[in-house]
Amino acid sequence: xxxxxxxxxxxxxxxxxxxxxxxxxxxxxxxxxxxxxxxxxxxxxxxxxxxxxxxxxxxxxxxxxxxxxxxxxxxxxxxxxxxxxxxxxxxxxxxxxxxxxxxxxxxxxxxxxxxxxxxxxxxxxxxxxxxx
Length: 132
Hints:
The protein contains 5 helices and 2 strands, in the order αααββαα. By secondary structure, the chain is mainly alpha-helical.
């Protein structure tokens, strides 16, 4: 239920936002002022949707086992992997000073792809085994 709601709420928010933008654009093209009541209702809907999404995300972190650990581990890994400066050779990692500027850095997408595997194994096989 949490995952479904957390997947639907951003879509609802972006739909409400695009409808509000559309209403303002249509009013500007017709040289008229937009209907303020409709805009207020759309804005209140966006606030309610964002509040519900934030609350559900918090509840998801509390109720789903090991979700907080996964989130924290992903956050720490993302920061570490994006700041990694080294050149891989067949003998190991070379962390010389000149590699700070010349070495290829991991992109955000590559970090996320790498994290999926690392976090799954670390949380489910190590952390979950020890603490559950």
